[in-house]
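Structure tokens please, single chain.
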Amino acid sequence: MTGADGRGDRERSDDASESTAADAVDPGPAVADPAAVIGRVPTEAGLRRELAAAARTLGLSSSIEGRLIELRNRVAAIEVEPVDLDAARRRVADASGEEERLKERVAALRGGVQARREIEAETDEALDELQSAAAELSAAQSERIAAEQALRRARTRAADARDARERRLELRDRLRNRRRDARRELAREVYPSFRDALAAVPGVDVDDAGADPGAYDGPSLAASLAAVRIADLDGAVVLGAEALGWIAERGGSAPESVLDGPVVRPCGRPRL
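Here you go.
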């Protein structure tokens, strides 16, 4: 029944959702907010994630919790500085262009001064203009040198940023893997309670549970209901129409008795 009811797809979706969240800072625990996972049914989560969330509500933690927090802190400590190489390149291009323009102007003015001297004409005004253009050229050359130095520094920062991003991605991959390990550990720890809870869920054969979470071959909704049943949630569980229909069509037990806790129906009115 795994393929038919989507249990396998949901397990793969759990892994995919983590691998595509590379830019988010992962929390330390294997499941940071259990209610966000099992506070409603259908949960849209895999069985191990559901069971790990239930385990967290019971005060359980994995043996690698400290390692998760350490990795989380290492990820958060890596800051990647944004570097605008395009702006630095434009500054060099602009400064170089201005320098070349002024070089041509200085050369032209120098030629004009020489020509006036050859005909023994007045050169004071032409020399003043040449001196002014030469000062502008000197400033433009200084700006070009500064722009080139800034570009070199920006390239160094960009290389450092690439290295930092690679380190952060590597740590995030390790963190996701360790969180997956922690969920598996927590899921195994509460699996006997989950098997017992399945007996209270209509429409499921307890034998479908197998010996561990990876062996479960029963209906997805039934597994979600059993996972919620063993959890110690503070508030009521929101049951969607699909979950309510599942219970009603398979014996008509009250949802509250199936979950052993308060329920909120789609209309939003709890019935305790």
